Amino acid sequence: GMLFLSFLILNSSYGALVEKIINLNESLARNNLELEDRVKERTAALQMEIEERKIAEKERAMAEEKAQRSSKMEAIGLMAGGVAHDLNNILAGIVSYPELMLLQLPKSSELRKPLEEIHSSGKRAATVVADLLTVARGVASVRESYDVNVLIREYLASPECVRLWSQYPAVSCEQDLVALDSIICCSPVHIKKTIMNLVINAAEAIADKGIICISTSNQLVEPSKPFKHTVDPGKYVLVTIQDNGPGIAEKDREHIFEPFYTKKVMGRSGTGLGLAIVWNTLQDHNGKVIVESSEKGTTFFLYFPVSDDRVVIQAEKQEEDVTTVNQEHILVIDDEPLLRDIASQMLTTLGYTVDSVSSGELAIEFLADHQVDLIVVDMLMEPGMNGRETYEKILLMRPDQKAIIASGFSESDDVEATLKLGAGGFIKKPYLLDRLGRVVKEVLNS
Q1: Which of 169, 242, 258, 273 could make an S-S bridge to 299, C-beta 3.0–4.6 Å?
Q2: What integer is the mean pLDDT of 124-134?
């Protein structure tokens, strides 16, 4: 009996032990599953973190590269601006004096041809300086509302464009200018230069036989909807210039907008500033330029914000007779003796009565005792008051004083502010006789 009782106790203990082992196994299995789940979750979280870090690193690297490129463009721009300012003053004599001398030479003079060549070379050099100034950015240019379709048509009908097609007879140009809202607030000369540079590049890329297509359309970029190009939300005129040339190599694509990065022969077929001008012009007009390229060709997309202004300049001002017989009195204010002399001689040649002074302070002294019909004031004068400050002081004495701003290189903000004060016109240095005469006549008659 005792033996049987011992067996029962042992049996029940064994059963309890087996049950404990089963429970322990189940608990271990559960813990293993939980641990596996936790390991999987942690691994997934770590992988996600690594991916996010990779993306963030890539974005940071891209942002750094973009910032470096931007500061590189800015540094080159500052250098270009400084060089261009000095060059403009040097070029003034080369561009302007031959023009004045040609007016006094007899038609038969043997000096006419070399003087015409000097004048022509000076003008070409002045356009390169103007390109450098565009790369310097923020440089003075007057903005008005223009129809971009009209500006493109004007360029395509220009002598420069006609000459281009004669150089590339196998390249044809198609246009599809269908944007309905095509008014943009712009500097027309920069827009035409942008179109010209892209068309020249396309023709040179095709070289043999091919097609360039220029089109315009409207593009609404909405904040909530994804858009294929990184463009800020808003309504745009999209100008597209497409060619079926060999395309741009991928290694070159990210550098093409940098100044002096060129595949052309410098000095023969360009200055290396063409696409830098395109990039800077779009930046200055709050727009964006995007390029897509493959071995089948290249497309440039130019996004210009649509202007709300309905007062549109219909076309570039036509040439008119700039001579005068009214002998209105003009005061030239410029700190550069050479430019003062050139402006005075040109205005005297056109039939005006002219006085000149070398600073804003001397201009105020002069105007205390004399009345003039118009002042031509340089924007940058050192030392002393600049053009804007001078005009502000003059307006306190003579609230209706008509004025023209002259500038070879100055900030757009200063020019805009002076125009808002009431200055009637803006003339770019170096002076050309007909351009100076036209602006003066317009402001005097306004």
Answers
A1: 242
A2: 74
Structural contact between residues 248 and 255, judged by C-beta atoms closer than 8 angstroms? no
Residues 388, 394, 400: CA angle, nearest 5 degrees: 105
3-class state of residue 215 by DSSP: strand
* Contact status, residue 440 vs residue 402, Cβ threshold 8 Å: no
Which tokens is 268 given? 């023969």
- Alpha-carbon span 398 to 391, nearest angstrom: 10
Among 67, 86, 73, CA closest to 336: 86
3-class state of residue 309 by DSSP: coil
Spatial separation of the C-alpha atoms in residues 334 and 346, rounded to whole Å:
14
Provide the residue type at 430 as one letter: P
Is pTM beyond 0.70? Reply is no
Distance CA 56, CA 13 (A): 62
Pairwise pLDDT comparison (162 vs 408), residue with the higher score:
162
- The tens digit of pLDDT for each residue in 9-58 reads 666 666 666 677 777 777 777 777 777 778 888 888 888 888 888 888 87
Buried b (16+ CB within 10 A) or exposed e, 159-181: eebeebeeebeebebeeebebeb
From start to end of 83-233, where are the E strands? 144-147, 171-177, 183-186, 210-221
Amino acid (one-letter) located at 155: Y
Residues 6+ away with beta carbon under 8 Å from 20: none
Specify whether the CB–CB gap between 417 and 388 falls below 8 A: yes
* 60/69 Cα distance (integer angstroms): 14
Question: If DSSP states are collapsed to H, E and C, what string results for 319-350?
Answer: CCCCCCCCCCEEEEECCCHHHHHHHHHHHHHC
